[in-house]
């Protein structure tokens, strides 16, 4: 799993995020996934019987290690980094890296640090005021394969976090019926 982690998380961190071409993307199958504003957890769950979350990493990152772009989306603060891989019925579908600013992990949101195998989306979207913005997309090459990725900002009780998601080769986004 550590090789997997190196490859995919590194690729995700090196992604060149771009503003989506909404008009074109909205009409495509990939677009429905990449531009999803509600819960990716729900969307993935609709394509399998069991969605499993494996936590690959959970650590703190200093403000100085964040990019200008990340700081402008989140504010100037150190963050918790949560790295996971999501599998649908045993197939790895999505690799995700989430930056959660320290000030987001307060009051009701303290538990986000301790989610473990509970999907982040499940926790965030059962809150009525959850919303997503700043959606950006990228194509990431891993071992010669072009994979789709997106980054978006999630808000819970007006507190932000930044989610980067890499769709792995077996993900339903690449399948005809996806
Ligand atoms: C997580 C991150 C879950 C990104 C997701 O959906 C996701 C998580 C299930 O960290 O649990 O799209």
UniProtKB/TrEMBL annotation:
GO BP, sorted A to Z: pyruvate biosynthetic process; ubiquinone biosynthetic process
Alphabetized Pfam families for the sequence: Chor_lyase
Primary residence: cytoplasm
Top-level division of the source organism's lineage: Bacteria
Catalyzed reactions per annotation: chorismate = 4-hydroxybenzoate + pyruvate
Compartment(s) of residence: Cytoplasm
Entry-linked SUPFAM superfamilies: Chorismate lyase-like
Primary role: Removes the pyruvyl group from chorismate, with concomitant aromatization of the ring, to provide 4-hydroxybenzoate (4HB) for the ubiquinone pathway.
Similarity remark: Belongs to the UbiC family.
Protein name (Swiss-Prot/TrEMBL): Probable chorismate pyruvate-lyase
